[in-house]
Amino acid sequence: MNSPNLWLYSSLSRLQQPKSYKGKIMLVAFVGTHIPLLTLLLYFLISNSFSLEMTIRVLVIALVATLVGTGCTLCALHHLLLPVSLTSRALQSYLREKKLPQLPTQFTDEAGTLMTDTVQTIKKLDVVIQRLTDYDDLTDLPNRDLFRNYCQKTLINLPNDKHLFAVIALNINNFRSINNTLGARIGDLLLKAVAERLVTNGGQNNYVCRLGNDEFAIAISHLTTIEAVTERAETLLKTLLPAFILEGKEIYISASLGIAVSPNDGSHIDSLLQNATTALNQPQRCEPNRYQFYGSEMNAQLQKRLLMENQLRQALERGEFFLHYQPRVKAHTGQVVAVEALLRWHNPILGMVSPAVFIPIAEANGLIGEIGEWALYIACAQNKAWQSAGLPPIRMSVNLSAQQVKQPNLAEQVSQILEKTGLDVAYLELEVTESLMMENVQQALATLQQLHELGIMLALDDFGTGYSSLSYLRHFPIDTLKIDRSFVTDVVTNLDNSAITNAIIALAKSLYLNITAEGVETQEQLEYLQAQGCHEIQGYYFSPPIPAEAIADFLQPPPLPLSDNSQEYNQRSLTHITPTPISQLVHYHSPD
Question: Could you state, in order of their start, the residue ranges of all structural domains in the chain?
């Protein structure tokens, strides 16, 4: 656009020298300040009114004054034009180096407004450019380049000895058919909805990006086990199962996942992303709503886990679960005062499966609630059977899972089980772990209060291994603190463990709580705990977990003394015990 007001600027721009805008203004200023001198010189040349001496004197004075005035004027103009120069350099720096301008913004005149507006405009422009450069237009997710930068920074700062970093490639199955059938608009809406679910429900420490079309990538940091990676993959699949309602249409989709885990599958994001995509696109690609690891070792673990999960779903119906019981005795007399019910699983294909392996899987797929209810019923029925057989009454201690504690009707469920089995509430103790209670303090407190009001004793298991607050502990209706076996193991030789054990015992005494030490295996450990005032002990020194029929030997009065001879007798009496499923001893009928 040519404006008539720019005639002077347009004319000056044609000059070859000076090149800069500031130089041209200086030239105009220089000429302008010398017009009076030139006029005076012309006047003296055409006039004969003054003597030659007077003419020279006046001209010299005028010349000096003009030069001084010109110098001052040019210096002032130089500084007055600095806002324009700084603004120009800032714009050039942003264009060349993407460097945001650092200009003063406190002035309110035209030059100050120019600098302020330039700063604000470039910052807004930079945000827009950055958004266009780093984010996907449709889903507003990070694109591949931003995803790579984020992942590589995370990998560099990742403590390799403690954490895993997983990259998951996700593909929407049959998206092309959906797009062709319902149209591109519905397809775009579906991609946006999928992106929103992945971000909202994908879990913590996840970073989602769109690779292109119907492919996404998810980076997950701060993982400690392959089980955690598997659980996160299952969460991602589950979050896509509910129908998407788009413009009145119900759309169901399935997805497939390929997983690569650092450091096993690579230490650079490019290799991890490539390996995750390779796992996704393998010829033996996993079925819809399934996932596949890149590494053969992890795939073997995955296949074993899938087999275990499938077997676990039918284990309760097939009667594969049973309970063993580990006695808890008075520290100073050896009298059995309680037993802890411990869940066991024997599968015809997998054999005996450790609780440390199958319980996390049961918790991840939601089976632990039903299994926990079964275990509680069997334990209560067994304790009542012992009492009916004339054995001395003892407490039955049963562990509660996180899912059970989260159930709003847990107290009612426990009350119904007690009623059906006929077990007096005084002989039931429920154990909760410290970490479980701290997940949701208010909910855990409300649940424990309801159980406490029923008259049920409550024990805090694994105390000292979590991050509980002593202020919370005062308010929990706990009857027993159980010292974790990790402290008891070296309590005699490890000063730190002994200090922690002593502190827990002192804390429990100050709160008038019963104290149970787990994992007692030696005479030295027992004597140390006795000296510190521990009330009860539990561990292989007295007995390992044993079947129900073997408990009768421990409950027959008088109680077995804790001596070397009795220890040998205990081991001999347990040598030929064959684990018997509890279903053969007590028939379980599910509560109504």
Answer: 8-131, 144-294, 321-584
CA-based radius of gyration for the chain: 41
The continuous run of DSSP H or E covering 64 comes out as: helix 52-80
Cβ atoms of residues 242 and 189 within 8 Å:
no
Mean pLDDT of successive 10-residue stretches along the chain, which has 592 residues: 56 69 71 72 68 73 75 68 74 75 70 74 73 82 90 78 83 87 90 92 84 92 83 89 89 90 85 88 62 75 79 90 94 91 94 90 84 94 92 93 86 94 95 74 85 92 64 79 87 87 88 90 91 92 90 66 40 32 37 36
State the sign of the Cα–Cα–Cα–Cα dihedral 571, 576, 579, 583.
negative
Residue 471 phi/psi, 5° resolution?
Answer: -65, -35
Element (H, E) at 176: helix 175-182
Distance between CA atoms of residues 167 and 179, nearest Å: 27
The token pair at 309 is: 């999960």
> What is the reported pTM?
0.55
pLDDT tens by residue, 261-294: 888 888 889 889 988 988 887 644 445 678 888 8
Looking at residue 268, what DSSP letter applies? S
Residue for token pair 């989260």: 406
| CATH architecture of the region 321-584 | Alpha-Beta Barrel (3.20)
144-294: what fold?
Alpha-Beta Plaits (3.30.70)
Rounded to whole angstroms, how far apart are CA atoms 105 and 145? 34
Phi, psi (deg, nearest 5) at residue 51: -75, 165
How many residues can be counted in the chain? 592
